[in-house]
Amino acid sequence: MRDRIIDIINDSIHIKERILHEQIDNIIKAAKTIIASLKSGGKVLIFGNGGSAADAQHIAAEFVGRFQAERKALPAISLNTNTSILTALSNDYGYEIVFSRQIEALARPGDVAIGISTSGKARNVLLAMKKAKEMGLKTICLTGGSGGELLKCAGLCFIVPSAVTARIQEAHITIGHIICELVENGLIK
User: Fold this and answer.
1) Where is 139: in which H helix or E strand?
2) Which has fewest Cβ within 10 Å: 48, 109, 145, 146?
3) Which fold has domain 2-188?
4) What is the DSSP string of 28-47?
5) Who contacts 81 (Cβ-Cβ below 8 Å, separation ≥6)?
6) Which positions ≥6 away from 147 have C-beta within 8 Å?
7) 144 and 125 in contact (C-beta within 8 Å)?
8) Is the torsion defined by CA of 112, 26, 168, 131 positive or negative?
9) Contact at 8 Å (CB) between 158 and 16?
10) What's the average model confidence in pLDDT over 118-129?
11) How do residues 6-19 score in pLDDT, each as one tens digit?
C-alpha cells in the first residue's frame, strides 16, 4: 500500500508540474475572460457529469460565496444542480440536451460557459459548448487525455496530460481554484 500511495501522489505531482510549465498562459486567459465578463454584467455557467458535476458545483459556489476574500457575490450557475430541470429535459428530450437547453434559456452573449469532461467525449457537454459558441458566449473547457471532441468546441481548452480520471479531476479542481483566486483578486483591485 505504501508504494501505491507514493506512486499516486508522485503521478499527481508530475501532472501538476506539467500544468505549471504548459498551462500558465491559458489560466491567465481564462481568468481575464471571466473578469471581463463579470465586469460587463455577464455570468459564468458551469457544467459536467459525475465528478465533473461536483467540480462545477464547487467552482460555482466559490464564485457566489467567496474564495478567500470577503467581496460581493459573483454570478455563477452550475447547470447540473436543478434535478427538476435535469429529469424533465432527460425525460422529454434525452439526456444529451440537458445543458444546451439551459444555455439557451439562461445565457446571454458575453457570458462564459465552462464545460468539464474528463474524457472530452460527454455528448451533453459537447452540445452545450456548441450552443454557447453559437450564442456568442466565451467558452472554456477542462478535459483530459487527448481532449476528445471537446477540444474542437471550446475557445480555450485545458487538457490535463493524463488518462486517469482521478488525476484529471484533481488537476481540474486545482485549475479551478487558481482561476477563482485570480478572478477574485482581479475584481477586488
Assistant:
1) strand 138-144
2) 109
3) Rossmann fold (3.40.50)
4) HHHHHHHHHHHHTT--EEEE
5) 57
6) 120, 157, 159
7) no
8) positive
9) no
10) 96
11) 999 999 999 999 99
Q: What is the pTM of this model?
A: 0.96
Decide: 184 and 73 in contact? Cβ < 8 Å. Answer: no
pLDDT reading at 106 higher than 90: yes
Cα angle at 168 between 34 and 184, to 5 degrees? 25
pLDDT of residue 117: 97
Radius of gyration for the alpha carbons in the chain, expressed in angstroms and rounded: 16
Q: How confident is the model at residue 153 (pLDDT cuts 50, 70, 90)?
A: confident
State mean pLDDT over 83-98. 97
* Residue 139 grid cell: 467558452
Alpha-carbon span 149 to 168, nearest angstrom: 17
Q: Give the distance from CA 154 to its chain's centroid.
A: 11
Q: What is the predicted pLDDT for the residue at 91?
A: 97
Buried b (16+ CB within 10 A) or exposed e, 162-186: bebeebbbbbbbbbbebbbebbbee
How many angstroms separate the CA atoms of 188 and 68, rounded?
11
With pLDDT > 70 as the criterion, what percentage of the chain qualifies?
Answer: 99
Q: What span, in angstroms and rounded, lies between the C-alpha atoms of 45 and 176?
A: 13
- Residue 168 corresponds to which cell in the numbers above? 484529471
